[in-house]
Amino acid sequence: MPFEWDRPLTTAPALDAPGRAQGAAPIAVLHAWPFRSLPKRGFAFIIGMAYVLFLIPISAFVGTLAIWWLLVPGLIAIGGLWWFIGKSYRDGEILEELDIWPDMIRLTRHGPHGRHAEWEANPYWVTVQLHKTGGPVPDYVTLKGGGREVEIGAFLSEDERPRLHAEIERALVLAKSRQGG
């Protein structure tokens, strides 16, 4: 599951619950990241398998000069495979963190190559929207508030984005409906 609540919001906070301004911890924290179809163990297996499969035809040329004409391009190909899969991992290093306090909501995006972006707003004025069409992906989820509209979870699959929308909407409704203490 490429998103999870570290602190799910299951009940409305108390009226006197401290907010971010008082230095309190968030009442809800969500983490979202892209799905990895090839885990690190799989990466090592693929490189090892490419090396072993490369050695099978090369073994017939051991002891001849022709091995060098086959060995160098083959090792370059394995090195290229290593580099491109590694680049795919580096480009997919995205983590989105949504923190909700009674008095503030903050979305932080840690992107590839050290890119960092933040968005903050008062949760009372924030709306979560699900754009069925018209976005860069189907079921595009955005948060609107603080004079801006920001995306969240665009890298998730089509069936995960509506679920993300529903869970964020439920958390915002609970955060806005504070209970008397």
UniProtKB/TrEMBL annotation:
<dbReference type="Pfam" id="PF10003">
    <property type="entry name" value="DUF2244"/>
</dbReference>
<feature type="transmembrane region" description="Helical">
    <location>
        <begin position="42"/>
        <end position="60"/>
    </location>
</feature>
<keyword id="KW-1133">Transmembrane helix</keyword>
<keyword id="KW-0812">Transmembrane</keyword>
<keyword id="KW-0472">Membrane</keyword>
<feature type="transmembrane region" description="Helical">
    <location>
        <begin position="66"/>
        <end position="85"/>
    </location>
</feature>
<protein>
    <recommendedName>
        <fullName>DUF2244 domain-containing protein</fullName>
    </recommendedName>
</protein>
<dbReference type="InterPro" id="IPR019253">
    <property type="entry name" value="DUF2244_TM"/>
</dbReference>
